[in-house]
Amino acid sequence: MYSYSVKVRTKTYLWGSAGVVVGLDDPLLLMIHNDPRGDEIVLTAEPAAGGLGTLQPGECWTYPLKGLTGLFADCDADSTVSCTIMALRS
Predict the structure, then answer these.
(1) Which among 47, 43, 49, 48 is positioned nearest to 30, based on CA atoms?
(2) Whole-structure pTM over 0.85, yes or no?
(3) 46 contacts 72 by C-beta, under 8 angstroms
(4) Which of 21, 26, 36, 53 might form a disulfide with 58, Cβ 3.0–4.6 angstroms?
(5) CATH number of this structure's domain 2-87
(6) Span 23-51, average pLDDT
(7) Spatial contact of 17 and 72, defined as CB atoms under 8 Å apart
């Protein structure tokens, strides 16, 4: 398990990068928690056909990273997002 925080303003990668071209094969989960004092964030995964949805301040969500090259958040103002990466055991 690995935890970190990211300050989000405009498009900010929570995991991955625009420069990564090979999708992840490992069964990992990304747990995302939007700061209760922050602003709404919009989540998008790459590659994806569209957005994943929004998280309001104080909300959290878990998303599988398998097959992705990146997952980013977008916010009009500022929000701090706490992230935890967890490995699934077989």
Answers:
(1) 43
(2) yes
(3) yes
(4) 36
(5) 2.60.120.510
(6) 89
(7) no
